[in-house]
Amino acid sequence: MTKHYDFLIIGGGVAGMSFALKVAAAGDYKIALCCKTTLEEANTAKAQGGIASVTNLLVDDFDKHIHDTMVAGDWLSDPQAVEQVVRNAPDGIRDLLRWGVNFDKQQNGDFDLHREGGHSEFRILHHADDTGAEIQRGLMAAVRANKKIEVLENHFAVEIITQHHLGVRVTRRTPDIECYGAYILNPKTQKVDTYLSRITLMATGGTGAVYATTTNPEIATGDGIAMVYRAKGLVKDMEFVQFHPTALYNPKETHPAYLITEAMRGYGGILRLPDGEEFMQKYDARLSLAPRDIVARAIDKEMKLHGIDHVCLDVTHKDPEQTKHHFPNIYHKCLSIGIDITKQYIPVVPCAHYMCGGIKVNLDGQSTIRRLYAVGECSCTGLHGGNRLASNSLIEAVVYADAAAKHSLAEIHNYSFNERVPKWNDEGTMSNEEKVLISQDMKEVGQIMSTYVGIVRSDLRLRRAWERLDLLYEETEDLFKRVQPTRDICELRNMINVGYLITRQALERKESRGLHFNIDYPRTDDHTPQEVW
Predict the structure, then answer these.
(1) pTM over 0.85
(2) Whether the predicted pLDDT of 528 surpasses 50
(3) 468: domain range?
(4) Per the domain annotation, does 524 fall within a domain?
(5) Phi, psi of 336 (to 5 degrees)
(6) What is the pLDDT of residue 246?
(7) Strand (E) or helix (H) holding 145
(8) Cα–Cα 20 to 30 A to 319, which of 215, 356, 365, 516?
């Protein structure tokens, strides 16, 4: 089956839905919003802390937010991207409010702003401790109410379509690669259909599921990044994987691990060893409010030093009723496993959280493949540099969705549907034995990445990961050629591709910078002295 859409959006989080609402408001376009599960399951809904924007102009300004972002990114951020996001953030917030999203306010009507690690001022808008869920709720309601947007849930994008599928040899040096749409697996028929589009947007989210433990849901397998990489698009900065310092330590939950928001440290939470001893003073003058890369490495170091499997976050010194008010979901979650956070320490551990790299895009959200845009966590805008500043990701998605919508609307009249695209060859079957191999290989990818490409790395570990992933790649590609595509084998291919990209780009960076910390390349600045680690 072949379908035609003016805009094909792959991914249903804040990035994809923001873009859909923007283009739907601009004209009578046919729009498909395709997501591999349901809209409710998008990674956006897992974001707890909030969304960053300069709001209180009495104490805050754009220059402060820009400086905080550059510092957190270890001065690797693209200044133009940083300025674009920070200066357009207030407009992005107004868009979210217009679409029905609610943020907590004080009695006088002003936003109730939080402060998080790395921020010099209180500028985090939030909805209790489930901001992402509130944003997802508001946008879902707006999208479902818009008759111009066709929502295709449980539809899995297998590959984007380029000249390669027309028999043209495409390499990374091909200057005019174009995207004509995507091959998408229909869950009801189990057939791969052809979706032709004039403009395609990739908004598939992050890569956390390639690690054994992550705050991301299992769906975060890096699909968009892998598809664009296979199509010879530029993928950049994949070595910068952010490990959130404080996920709830609960061995029964690994995908996703329950996130203990950054805002809890901004609220006054103190990191301690299980015996109550503080330790952040050994690593950074900002103590528990240091940026995530520093805090995650400090926790990793203390766990190895003391032979423990977690550290603790302490808010027992704070007013119990205020704690319950500000963090109701965290309070009830911890209570469900026997921990009263107003009286007991919260056991926490770092785990994979956010990908700072991805599909390289310009200020308009354009990838290096014509007619293909990328927005949200799957994209590399340059905003985050070597490390994401807390709560910058949601606002980046909204701002770049707006930029991509404006640019693509101005360009769409130049593009037509490519009717020469062939149908997918769906020969082959898969046995139950092969399905068992796929699930086992997925676990192996997570073990390889967590063991060898984690918070602290070395060239030896990275090369070992490369060799293990290469074997899995060869086996999986051979299997993929012989069977009919299913979601699980496609996800495995994508996970292996993403793991390879993280490992390769980590090997190529011959320095310790931002989130990438390699013991073979000691830092020489005063900010994170090597001897501490």
Answers:
(1) yes
(2) no
(3) 432-484+486-508
(4) no
(5) -65, -20
(6) 93
(7) none
(8) 215
